[in-house]
Amino acid sequence: MGATFAALRHRNYRIWAAAGFVSVVGTWMQVLGVNWYVLAETRSATSMGLAVLLQALPTLLLSVWGGALADRLRAKPLLIAAQAAHAALAAGLAVVALTGAGGLPAIYAISLATGAVSAIEGPVMGRWTSTLVDRESLGNALALGSLTHSAGRILGMSAGAVVVAAVGPALLFAINAASFVAVLAALFAVRERELHTGGPAADAEPADGGIRAGFRYLLRQPVVLVALALSFVLGSLGRNYQVTMAAMSEGPLGAGAAGYGVLSTVFAVGTVLGAFVAARRRHLGYGVLVGAGLLASGLQVGAGLAPNTLGFAAVILPIAAAAVIIDTTVGTRAQLDTDYAMRGRVLAALAVTGSVSAAVGAPLLGWLSEHAGPRQTLVLAGVATAVATAVAGVALDGLRGRRLRGRITRALAAPRVRRAASTAARVVRPAATVARPAPMATVRPVAGVPTARWAPPRPRGARLRPPADEYAAAAPRRARRRPGLAAASRPAGPPVDCARSTPETA
């Protein structure tokens, strides 16, 4: 089994991934069914948006409590209770859709309760999933989870559209209720003796398992805080494409509802490709996060300048892939770079960050699209996210001991790089074009003073010696001043011609 599916080597994860795929398909069928039911009853997009808001609002309020519970209680009983609650709520939606009992207030109440259960379940589920594989396979497991979610979303929305058009939304709710049976079966099939739990808490506070301890712990993790801040900016300004795609389709591109459907499909395919790319990487570090953020920001500027729907779709595809890589990397680092005893509360903070970014970014981008134009909104948001990513990259490099600067320095000092730089310097400035010093002006000789002449520059470290003729002319004067030295330096016998001498005469 290749590196792309390394997490599937673990039996527990294989069981959980299969059950999760079934559950994701059912969940997206229910999302489509709720939206369709509310829209058919009210003919109002605002009412449909209210149902979506009621499901997302509890995440902002209850996720931190779910994180505290995840760190204090065993995950398996909590997950069993959550899946049973989800199944009961989905069955309740099916009853309302079939009988009409309760009407829209019942739909809104069930949507709110579903959001509350999901808010508490999310951190527990994240911590449970991290125990199904070892530390080295955690990033791959999260990437495959993104792949499962993206593929399940495509299948659930596609199959749900066919079912709701044929028999109505009640069957969608019933299918979702049945899908939780697969998750319950997987929970009982997982072997607890093969779970990979973390070691002893090094930085956690065992005596205080509450929310305040989680906040105090996060404040002592500046690297994680910078990653969460970057995730918020990229999520609010660079990830709310349901708003900007609709604005571009209705506005500059003139593609209408059909074009919006095509762009949504392309975006979904991009998320699948991004999940594959993330799964193939053995290490998802902060360099990957910064690189994907810069790539997505640049492509977002290009999306604002796209001339037609085809060009916009071509840019949307890699943007969706980069979005999945960013989410997977942030989730991986948030779990690997924090204490196991605080993992639930860290995942809760990550969930709150995603919810707040969606709640802030969607209306902001919508307002900018109406007042400044969709193209201008995409370009402005792309530039803002690029600047934020660059600032976060510098901050992360400083907090992690200038690792990026050290890597660049070591790369530049490598022998191959130095040889390449030397070769490039010779090509750019060959020896023939090196400027030579101009000859000195001719000076009239003066009696008794040797004439100055130009000499080539001497090598570094060589001793400065006058020319032979000047040395010979100056020798008698030095000898007269120092007769003892001259006598001592005079040879004792006649000079020997070394060139013609034999070994005997030498």
UniProtKB/TrEMBL annotation:
Keywords: Cell membrane, Membrane, Transmembrane, Transmembrane helix, Transport. Its main location: membrane. The keyword DNA damage does not apply. InterPro entries: MFS_trans_sf, TM_effector. Residues 451-506 are annotated as: Disordered. The chain crosses the membrane at residues 15-39, 45-66, 78-100, 170-190, 217-237, 257-277, 284-303, 309-326, 346-366, 378-399. It is a multi-pass membrane protein. It comes from the Bacteria. This is Predicted arabinose efflux permease, MFS family. It is found in: Cell membrane. It holds the Pfam family MFS_3. One of its GO terms (cellular component) is plasma membrane.
